[in-house]
Amino acid sequence: MSRKISELRKEIDRLDFELLQLLDKRMEYAVCIGKEKVLAKSNIYCPKREQEILQRLKKNALKYLNHEAIDSIYREIFAFSRKLEKVEKVAFFDSASSFAYEVVAKKFGFVGKYLMMQDLASLFRAVQLGEVKYGVIPLENDSGIIKESCELLFKNEAKVIAEVILPLQYSFASNDEKIQNIKKIYLEKAIANQCRDFLKFYGFNEDKWVFVDSSVEVAKMVAKKKHTAIICSNMIARLHNIPIIFENIQDKNNQMRFVVISDFFSQKANKNKTSLLVAIKNKKRADVLLGLLEDIKKYKIGLIKIEEKEIDFFSHFYLELEGYFEDKNLQEFLRKRSKELKLLGSYPREL
């Protein structure tokens, strides 16, 4: 080893020690804040605060750390800080090709207490009963707003407090370097439909496919079994130390939007979004739509999204508006429409 490398490593060791001391000091402050929050009976997770910290840090001109690196590092710092303040459970629905787990890791880090639910109704019930503090649910895919999520938001009192927009990227992972040795490929049906071109190109015919309900569960087995492979998210493969042979094998680039739900309203951030459901019931659809658009224009509210959904045999309009529900113009709009709408939540808009 050259003398220069040895000297550089000594500098790295010194910096590591300093970083550790600074992180430990940061955690000390987090513990103090946690105690104050418990006394004040306020919520531990504050999406607004975390978003503000990340935005502020990203304004710094750094040579090597890009925005993605800052996100990754600070998500874990946030997660461990919250754990020191108070351990709170997070539930996620194991569907959407296990991307919900990736969202949980992105928002809450790897050190939290997580529960995997088998269906959305159970997840909402757990939040409603206080069995978990937070739930992560899929809200929108390339076909639009997901009906079941919309319906459960309408029927339950849980509030949307944060959103995560996640690119749907798949990897082919296996312990076998030679793909011709692979006899079984484990994947979810939804993934097979999105990776058909890749499977066809490499000659992985359907007789090698083994459909599974959960990539999270089967990855543990693939990590130990020879001549097998799995198609899953990058995070699932890396979490179980399965070598990734091919990345981004999906036929086209899609994204999915998830939201975090809880029993409180998120604090106002710099840029906010408000989600609502407006019942049509016995009124004419066109009249309701026209009235909504006129009121949105009248109160000078920015319209992000409007989509029609059927809930309990009645049509509803799902709305996303710019702003926070306590803003003056939104308050006037909500008062006027109070008999026909439900406020689902106001939360920081993902940039």
List keywords for this structure.
351 residues, aromatic amino acid biosynthesis, D-Maltodextrin-Binding Protein, domain 2, 12 helices, six-stranded mixed beta sheet, alpha/beta, amino-acid biosynthesis, Chorismate Mutase Domain, subunit A, 42% helix, 27% strand, globular, Alpha-Beta Plaits
Write the layout of secondary structure elements.
Layout lengths: L2 H38 L6 H12 L8 H19 L3 E5 L5 H10 L4 E5 L2 H9 L5 E8 L2 E2 L1 H9 L3 E10 L1 E5 L9 E4 L1 H6 L1 H6 L7 E3 L3 H8 L5 E6 H6 L4 E3 L7 E9 L9 E8 L5 H14 L4 E9 L2 E9 L5 H9 L4 E8 L3
Parallel strand pairs: 1-2, 1-3, 7-8, 7-9
Antiparallel strand pairs: 3-4, 3-11, 5-11, 6-9, 6-10, 12-14, 12-15, 13-14
Based on the coordinates given, report the CATH architecture of the largest domain.
2-Layer Sandwich
> Are there runs of 5+ residues with pLDDT below 50, and where?
none
Helix content: 40-55%
Count of β-strands: 15
Rg over CA atoms, rounded to whole Å, is: 23 Å
Describe the sheet with the most strands. Answer: 6 strands, mixed
Strand residue percentage? 25-35%
Superfamily at the CATH H level of the largest domain? ACT domain
CATH names the topology of the largest domain as Alpha-Beta Plaits
State the end-to-end CA separation.
Answer: 46 Å
SS content category: alpha/beta
Level-1 CATH class name of the largest domain: Alpha Beta
Helix and strand pattern = HHHEHEHEEHEEEHHEHEHEEEHEEHE
Molecular shape:
globular
How many alpha or pi helices?
Answer: 12
Number of domains: 3
Mean pLDDT level = 88
Catalytic activity: chorismate = prephenate; prephenate + H(+) = 3-phenylpyruvate + CO2 + H2O
Keywords: Amino-acid biosynthesis, Aromatic amino acid biosynthesis, Cytoplasm, Isomerase, Lyase, Multifunctional enzyme, Phenylalanine biosynthesis
EC number: 4.2.1.51, 5.4.99.5
Domain Chorismate mutase: 1-89
